[in-house]
Specification:
Blueprint (H helix, E strand, L loop, with lengths): L20 H15 L12 H17 L5 H29 L3 H4 L21 E6 L6 E5 L7 E8 L10 E5 L6 E3 L6 E11 L2 E2 L6 E5 L1
Helix pairs in contact: 1-2, 1-3, 2-3
Length: about 220
């Protein structure tokens, strides 16, 4: 009897209790945006329209709580837990539905937990990893080194659907030992990325597109 290899599922980061209200809201918005209309996650356990309403209410309460009202703070904290509950439900659904496929998982808006093997696996033949920067609107892109390459070209665009053509922005990358920092991106927006290497014989083909949500 042949034993089938066990699929290692990709777990989302879930340290919600250790982050700020704004971070929870940003993560939730990224997931809601990325999963809405996403064919890979067609039957989420949470109504995404209602989830957006809950996020909007949470953001409103965050702003109202700045005046120090104990009543509003209590309401804000209660709404925070409601948003986190929905995030956890969606996270379990994405974990199971993506079935260990990083290319599918990445389109969910969730970040993979650093303890999983998939965080070190390349996303494409040229792009090794994408992560969030220190500030909103920033992403860090790690490019895989190609033997004989003198430099690399990274291009990115807001994700499009159907036959629409992306509007690419290109950046020259001369060193790949550290991630390349992209700034000025639109928060809570899905982007797609491609990269290629410059060899003595010319550029390689563009890598397959990798999608990632900026927060």
């Amino acid at each position: 009897m042949t034993t089938q290899p066990k699929i290692k599922l990709i777990k989302p980061i879930e340290n919600y209790n250790g982050v700020s209200d704004g971070d929870v809201a940003a993560r939730a918005a990224a997931v809601q945006t990325a999963m809405t209309g996403n064919a890979s996650f067609a039957n989420p356990p949470v109504d995404l329209t209602a989830f957006k309403t809950a996020i909007d209410q949470f953001n409103a309460l965050i702003a109202e709580a700045l005046d120090g009202s104990k009543k509003v703070i209590a309401q804000k904290n209660k709404q925070r837990q409601a948003v986190i509950k929905d995030l956890r439900l969606l996270g379990r659904y994405v974990e199971v539905t993506s079935n260990g496929d990083p290319s599918i998982f990445q389109t969910s808006g969730f970040q993979a937990a650093s303890t999983t093997k998939t965080t070190t696996e390349p996303l494409s033949e040229t792009i090794r990893k994408i992560g969030h920067g220190a500030n909103s609107g920033q992403l860090k892109v790690s490019i895989r080194a190609v033997r004989g390459a003198t430099s690399y070209e990274l291009r990115y665009a807001q994700a499009v659907t159907g036959t629409a053509t992306p509007t690419w922005t290109s950046q020259t990358v001369t060193a790949v030992r550290t991630p390349f920092l992209l700034t000025g991106l639109t928060p809570v927006t899905m982007y797609q990325f491609q990269a290629r290497a410059l060899l003595k014989t010319g550029y390689t083909d563009w890598s397959d597109s990798v999608s990632f949500v900026c927060t």
